[in-house]
Design goal:
By secondary structure, the chain is an alpha+beta fold. It is built from six helices and twelve strands.
């Protein structure tokens, strides 16, 4: 695999055999002066066989799901991001799980089978809630109201599979941290048994869902949304990232990023109290 760092055209990714995809070390060529500093740092880490970076870019050896990574070099500075995720195979998608409301409401608890059914469903529902919001704290960080609303928001026309999207930041050749957004991949139910290699898929992160819910309902559950948590959603054409973080000067930065899934073209926006900033370029795509 070879990838070329550019700002105005996508990285090249010649095909290689399926058996070696997970660990084939790419050859990086830095030809664009706008992203020279960032590309040099990325190339140094690849050439040094940095295991953490290679896992982010190439995925784990032998993993059944399809790993995709976008390496986005920021122009004129020594910084780049690696946005990575694994698209679940169609066979893993299922209808949403939920408690059978009629049995839960009217079941005679004197019957052990009814009592066991309700307890089992409640435990399963709580397990999914805790996982999708990464909420294992006591007391919970996310209210039961918002979790119930998340369950009710599922469409009968779609099937779902849990997943994660990670946004890794590198500055001056150093790993500066990772933002992880758990959530759900979805696809039209009719595509579940499709033999097509890439049926259309959508990813909605749990906090991206909370942000959308509050926008639609007048911030009714604003306290459930952690603004400094990554808010990530993916549709068939684009990746969307939104979060807030504190810069070295102490100001709160409102950050958004959008990536075209097909071409790798990206644009970033930075909003701070005194000024706004923008950067754009093209991510290298590794599949």
């Amino acid at each position: 695999m070879m990838a070329t760092a550019q700002t105005n055209s996508p990285g090249a990714n010649p095909k290689i055999s399926e058996a070696n995809t997970a660990r084939a070390i790419p050859t990086i060529k830095c030809v664009d002066h706008e992203t020279a500093a960032a590309c040099k740092s990325f190339k140094e880490l690849v050439d040094a066989r940095d295991e953490r970076l290679l896992r982010q870019v190439l995925g784990d050896r032998g993993h059944a799901q399809r790993h995709i990574a976008y390496v986005c070099l920021r122009p004129k500075v020594d910084a780049f991001s690696v946005i990575e995720f694994e698209v679940p195979g169609p066979e893993t998608y299922r209808p949403p799980s939920s408690i059978n409301e009629d049995i839960a409401r009217y079941a005679d608890d004197s019957l052990p089978t009814n009592r066991l059914f309700r307890e089992t469903e409640e435990i399963a529902k709580k397990g999914i809630e805790d996982s999708i919001f990464m909420d294992f704290s006591d007391p919970p960080a996310v209210s039961q109201y918002i979790k119930d609303q998340w369950f009710q928001d599922h469409s009968k026309d779609f099937v779902y599979s849990l997943g994660l999207v990670a946004d890794n930041l590198y500055q001056d050749g150093l790993d500066k941290g990772i933002a992880i957004e758990p959530g759900e991949w979805s696809m039209m139910a009719g595509n579940k048994g499709s033999r097509r290699h890439d049926p259309p898929t959508w990813f909605m992160g749990s906090y991206a869902w909370i942000e959308r819910f509050n926008f639609q309902h007048g911030d009714v559950s604003a306290r459930d949304d952690d603004q400094e948590h990554a808010h990530i959603s993916i549709d068939p054409s684009s990746i969307h990232i939104h979060d807030k973080f504190e810069n070295p000067g102490g100001s709160l930065v409102d950050y958004t990023m959008q990536i075209n899934r097909l071409t790798g073209r990206f644009v970033e926006y930075f909003k701070i109290p005194d000024a706004n900033g923008e950067a754009s370029g093209t991510c290298m795509i590794f599949k």
